[in-house]
Guanylate cyclase domain-containing protein
Amino acid sequence: MTPNLATVACLPVTVADDTAALSVVLTPGPPEPGWHRIVTHVRGQLSPSVPVADLSGPSLSAVAGIGESTFGWTLGRFDGPALPTEAVALQAFLPIESSPRELDLTVRVDMSFARKGLRRRIDHHRAPAPWRFRVVVPSRRSAAADKPRVRLCLAADIERYSRFGNPEAMLAQERLLIVMRRARAHAGVDESAVLTEGAGDSQFAILPEGLDETRVVPLLIEGLAQALRDVNRDLDDHHRLRIRMAMDRGLLTPSVNGWVGSSTIAVHRLLDSPALRTALAADRGVDHAVMVSRTLFQDVIRHGYHGLTPGAFAEMDVDIPGKGFSERAWLHVPR
């Protein structure tokens, strides 16, 4: 028996208080007919060496290596029932420091399968090669970071996310984060200085201050298109990722439950606007649509920086009476 053991993905690190959560998503492959998976071992190793503060996984899992840089999870028991076929999320919690860190994560997977019969047979298999990821652990937020700053912010979400079952949704979330991270990298944004908030099918990001918007804004739009082409290249229509994105810039202040500032409100209203939703839904030939605020259009886009074509953006009023929101915005759908 030579089963397709699994695929492994690593999600961007999230931060709460003084702890960073590193999430590994394991999606089991289908077992051979007549066999079922009973035990899965997942082992992680961080380099340079960083001890994990804690580990978590699904119920009935065991962990090992807390306080060490080599750690792991064991799912299932040799005398237990078959393991579920759905993807599982495994988390390692790391201490955060005053400076951001880049770590290399290596993940290895072993699985044991059982076959029922007159004599129960068990086979053990190891993935032929480990998975390797580069992980960015953000720094601890300093007191200076709590002061108001003018920042570029953006929000993105997945079109028709509810069509996915749970395992598909986990992969779609992973692809969304990959696309947004690649778009920012294309624009030359330091990922370790980006502040993000996730909500399943969406991501809100606040970019570091002091950016050259005449370069970053055009390259974010260009990078989004390029990243989506790469991610969607081998996906069928059902799994294809289509993204709405909105951007604005303004004075932001961190607060006890998020960020305070008119641009944080505006970027989410633009993202949820009927105009942006309708524009993407109406054109199945594109993978994304972008809406920008009056501020960004007037300061950056209308001047044609870095190859942007102002005429490719359609001016419109965005009115959402139920939210008390009414603003002029510009919509871009690639042609």
